[in-house]
Specification:
With 177 residues, the protein is α/β, with parallel strands linked by helices. The chain has a single domain, classed as Glutaredoxin (3-Layer(aba) Sandwich), CATH 3.40.30. Helix content is 29%, strand content 19%. The protein has a five-stranded mixed beta sheet with strand order 2-1-7-3-4. It has a two-stranded antiparallel sheet with strand order 5-6. The longest helix has 18 residues. The radius of gyration is 16 Å and the shape is globular. It starts with a helix and ends with a strand.
Length: 177
């Protein structure tokens, strides 16, 4: 995702949204790194922020990052757990809606890359490329994307998807390292 960000940040707004941890050491699906790093299910928002900050530092991610609230509203609204990628067109409609990760991550990354590459080529023609997926999902390609408002990890300022209306947005909603 960081590589995609570096390659296309000049033509699209990228945001990560950290949601509830998928593979915490005390979860139903613990993984070794969570045990080694002492990552447990988030008990409060401060803990969720701390884990997100550790993730950004550990993975050397520079993508602007938002954090889902303890009510998990983003996770529920976007059916994102454990991870999902969306490409939102300037008109607010979806161009790419990935299957849930981890199996959906790599194909979604490829779809997002293809869409952004086509968009870059089409800029001279002023029409964005067509949506790459017509799979029926609760959040469907071609329909308006639901808005969210969350604080930024980097500076705590609230951001909403609607703040970027008129721009291309790559939204990666994820739960785990």
């Amino acid at each position: 995702m960081e590589q995609l960000f570096q390659q296309y940040k000049d033509i699209a707004e990228f945001r990560l949204v950290y949601i509830n941890e998928a593979h915490a050491s005390d979860s139903d699906w613990p993984v070794e790194y969570a045990k080694e790093l002492g990552i447990t299910q988030h008990e409060d928002y401060g803990q969720r922020c701390t884990v997100a900050e550790r993730l950004l530092e550990d993975k050397q991610l520079t993508i602007p990052t938002l954090i889902d609230g303890m009510d998990n509203a983003v996770n529920k609204a976007y059916q994102a757990w454990p991870d999902r990628i969306y490409v939102i067109q300037p008109n607010g409609k979806l161009a790419v809606a990935a299957d849930r990760g981890p199996r959906g991550f790599k194909p979604a990354l490829n779809q997002a890359t293809e869409w952004l590459a086509d968009y870059r080529k089409s800029q001279a023609h002023s029409s964005p490329p067509a949506a790459l997926s017509d799979e029926p999902l609760a959040i469907e390609v071609g329909l308006p994307f639901p808005d969210i408002m969350l604080p930024s990890v980097q500076n705590g300022s609230p951001m909403a998807i609607s703040d970027f209306r008129g721009k291309k947005i790559i939204l990666h909603v994820f739960a785990s390292w």
